[in-house]
Amino acid sequence: MLIARRITEAVAERARREFRAILADHDMTADEALAIVAEKRLAALVTGGKVRITAEHAAKLPPSLKIVANTSVGHDHMDSEAVKAAGVVVTNTPDVLTDCTADLAFMLLLNACRRGHEYEAIMRAGWRKGYGFPDHLGLQVSGRTLGIVGMGRIGQAMAQRARGFGMRVLYHNRRRLPAEQEMGAEYVDDLRAMLPRSQVLSLHLPGGEAGTLMTAENFALLPRGAVFVNTARGSLVDEDALIEALRSGHLFAAGLDVFRREPDFDLRFAELPNVFLTPHVASATIETRNAMGFKALDNVAAVLAGRPPIDPV
Length: 313
What we know:
Blueprint: E1 2-3, H1 9-19, E2 22-23, H2 30-40, E3 44-47, H3 55-58, E4 67-70, H4 80-85, E5 89-91, H5 98-113, H6 116-124, E6 145-149, H7 153-164, E7 168-172, H8 179-182, E8 186-187, H9 191-194, E9 200-203, H10 216-221, E10 226-230, H11 239-248, E11 251-256, E12 275-277, H12 286-304
C-alpha cells in the first residue's frame, strides 16, 4: 500500500505495522502516486486532495491496484466513476467528521456575528484606545434565524448547536427530513423563499451538485445585515458577488473556511475587516484526522481480505 499524503503519526504507525505501507513525505500528485503503485505493484492507494485521478489516469491504472481509499468524505478531486469503471474500488470516510465540521462552522458563525477578527486585531495592536457605548457593536446570535442549505449529517449537527443558542432554524434540502430528525427545524422547499427569512445562512451541501449556488441574485435575497457562513465548498459561491455584498454592507459579515482557489484564495477577502477566515480546516482536530485515516485503512483491510468495502463511493 502507498499512502500518498502526509498523515498523523497514529495512522502512520498502524499503516506500517499492519500493511508495511510506503508513506509519502509530501502530498503526492496522481502521476507521482500511480508511478509508485505501478513500479511496486501495489494493491492499495490511500489518497489526499492532490491525487487528482482523471479519466485519462483511470484508463491506464496498474493492474495490481484494487482500491483507492480517500481520507475524506469528499471525492470530487478525482473521477470516481472512471476509477470504478476500471474495476478499482473507491471509498471515502463518512460520519467521522460531522461534529468537528459543525463545531468549526458554528465558530465561524459566532466570530462573524461578534466581529471576532476586528476585536482580536485591536488586542494584537495593543488596545491603547478606549471604545464607547455605540462602538464596534456586533450581532447577538441567540434569537436569530439560521437558514441551513443541505440538511445532511453536518447540517443537522449545525442545527443542534444553533438550538443550544436559542436560534430558530430553517432548512432547505432536496427532500424533507422525517419529523424526528427535524427536531423543530422548519423545512422550506424553495431556496429563494428561505433566503429573505435567513438572518444567518450556512452552507452544508457537497460541491458539484448545485454549481454556483450563491450568486449575486441570491445574496441580494438575504435580508440586509445578514451573515454568511461556508464550510462546504468554495465552488458553491460567486466570490465577486460575495465580496461586493460585504463591501456594500448588504451582508454584515461572513465566516469562510473554503474558497474557489485553495490555497491561493482571493486576497480581497483578507482585506475585509468583516470576514473571519480559516484555511479549510473544518476537520483539523487530532481525533477527527486520526479517525479519517483509520477509516481509510479499515476499507483497505476489508478489500484486500476479499470482503466488501465498508464505505464504497
